[in-house]
Amino acid sequence: MLKVYNSLSRKIEDFKPLKDGHVKIYVCGPTVYSYLHVGNFRGPVFFNFVRNWLEHLGYKVEYAVNFTDVDDKIIKRAQDEKVSATDISEKYIAEYKKDFKALGLRAHDHNPKVTTYMPQIIDFVKTLIEKEQAYVSGGDVNFSISKFKDYGKLSGRKVDDLLEGVRIDVNDKKQSPLDFALWKTAKPGENLQGSSWESPWGAGRPGWHIECSAMVKALFGNQIDIHGGGLDLLFPHHENEVAQSESCTGEHYAKYWMHWNMLNFSGNKMSKSLGNVVNMHDFLQTNHAEIYKWMILSSHYRSLADFSDSTLDFAVAGLARVYSALSLATSLCNEQTPFDKIFEVECKNTWDKMTEALNHDFGTPAAFAEMFELVRKYNAQVKRGAKVNVPSAAISKSFLSLMNKFGSLLSLFQESPAEFLIKLDDMLLEKKKLTRAQVNQLVEARAQARANKDFAKSDELRKKLTEMGISVSDLTDGSFWEVTK
User: Fold this and answer.
1) Arithmetic mean of pLDDT, 42-48
2) Residue 302 class from Cβ within 10 Å (0-12 exposed, 13-18 middle, 19+ buried)?
3) I need a surface site. Which of 45, 248, 329, 479 has the fewest CB within 10 A?
């Protein structure tokens, strides 16, 4: 049975959806004012797998990720570039979709934008005012924290503790410094397209928190099974969502809250002030999408993950090891090849262990460990360069079957193995400022020296290749080389 860590209860729970066989998921998406950095895609990659795994378990999944296209940062960029807020948000939604597609992720069922849900947002705010959970103050509408007795239940924070040390501005429009904006009156100069709307309280725009609550209600009704987001959103964003949604509907909002942890850059938090933010657009110019997905999925989603040269090298090495086995297996079997009955047992045992790991709060690292063990067992029985025979082909067929199943759930290993290994080597050669022609010339010269029994020259060339970061293997049908990983 699937077990999930629920941020609300702060413990692992059995997963039981609100409606048998159906799962409704809403994940907080990006604020679209710039290119998205690599940390912004940890959630999309992980929840792509969550959706796939739930469907594998037999659930019908409906999945939504929003675009926040109303925000101060969008307005500021629009003002700086002298264009409309809509121009800015639509530009970076398009860029996000390019990166998303390049990562090979499945499209969501819904991608609601705040700007297209303004009537629903206004109605939501009206309901909260009617229920006296919110109040109008100088053109703003604020949610009253004191009217929601369970405030803090998601994050575990206490209102009294939050109030300590908070400076109270006598000119503030809020009854309490913890009250948060549901609707904000337009500021002078905020007359850009896509930055202000008419409402019963005057021209303005919604507060950040109300947007997700209104879109969830419009898409899914009063309740959802899973609400996801980055750990940095747990408070105050998700806490405020709970307060306003449950105040509006009188029902429990989300049954399970799932939060992925942050992505650090070389041991430090990603920060524009530190200058260590890497956007996905730039990363994918020099690195294959498989590398990023491996880096994300080989760590547990609730663990702090490091994004550094060393973790990138580990990802490249891991991918090379798996794809090398896949390439060999693909070359040895075809659709008519039978499965190997003995290796099928190994594969079934591996799959059972993978399933156990993934059913325990989506434990991808433990599943990866089982995958590596299977790769080791496959490589022990089937050698590159060995004579092709029925047993090796059958073992390869069984190995490929399991790896294809596992990879499809992760959206990994979907590339042609032989082509991917060439792409990976070309990428690494470019970083070394080498060309394939240069390497081939040296490998061929070494092969000729071996043929001439000039072993001193052969050893000299092997040493040179090794120093360049090239590994050479001598097989019965010639020499095989790859970039050392």
Assistant:
1) 98
2) middle
3) 479
Coil, strand or helix: which one is 152?
A: coil
Residue for token digits 């067992």?
377
User: What is the phi/psi pair of residue 266, to 5°?
Assistant: 50, 40
Going by C-alpha positions, the residue among 275, 305, 250, 286 that lies closest to residue 127 is 250
What is the maximal distance between C-alpha atoms in the chain?
Answer: 92
Sign of CA dihedral 263, 268, 272, 277: negative
Note the pLDDT of residue 161.
Answer: 85
Distance (Å, whole) CA 164 – CA 149: 18
CA distance 421 to 320: 7
Report DSSP state, residue 455: H
Is residue 329 within 8 Å of 398, Cβ to Cβ? no
CB 135 within 8 A of CB 120: no
Tokens read off for 147: 């009217």
Q: What is the DSSP letter of 161?
A: H
Please calculate the CA angle 243-120-190 and round it to the nearest 5 degrees.
Answer: 95
Strand, helix or coil for residue 70? coil
Query: Beta 60-65 vs 180-185: how paired, if at all?
Result: unpaired
CA distances to 4, 5, 148, 223, 358 from 11, rounded to whole Å, are 8, 5, 24, 21, 17
Cβ–Cβ < 8 Å for 244, 210? yes
SS (H, E, C) 354-405: HHHHHCECCCHHHHHHHHHHHHHHHHHHCCCCCCCCHHHHHHHHHHHHHHHH
Per the document, the length of the chain is: 485
Helix spans in 207-307 (H): 208-220, 239-249, 280-286, 289-297
pLDDT at residue 127 tops 50: yes
Torsional class of 258: left (φ above 0), alpha (ψ -120 to 50), beta (otherwise): beta
Q: Would you call 173 exposed, middle or buried from its count of C-beta atoms within 10 A (0-12, 13-18, 19+)?
A: middle
Strand 22-27 with 60-65, pairing:
parallel
What backbone torsions phi and psi does residue 37 show, to the nearest 5 degrees? -85, 170
* Residue type present at position 356: E
Cβ count within 10 A of residue 146? 12
Q: In what order do the strands lie in the sheet with 140-143?
A: 134-137, 140-143, 180-185, 204-206
| Whole-angstrom Cα Rg for the chain | 27
Q: Describe the crossing of helices 289-297 and 42-56 by its angle, rounded to 10 degrees.
A: 70
Enter the pTM of the model: 0.92
Q: CA 346 to CA 253: how far, in whole Å?
A: 44
Q: Which amino acid is at 130?
A: E
SS3 string of 138-171? Answer: CCEEEECHHHCCCCCCCCCCCHHHHHCCCCCCCC
Residue 267, pLDDT > 80, answer no
* Residue 42, pLDDT above cutoff 80: yes
Q: Are 394 and 337 in contact (CB under 8 A)?
A: yes
- 260: Cα separation from own chain's centroid: 9
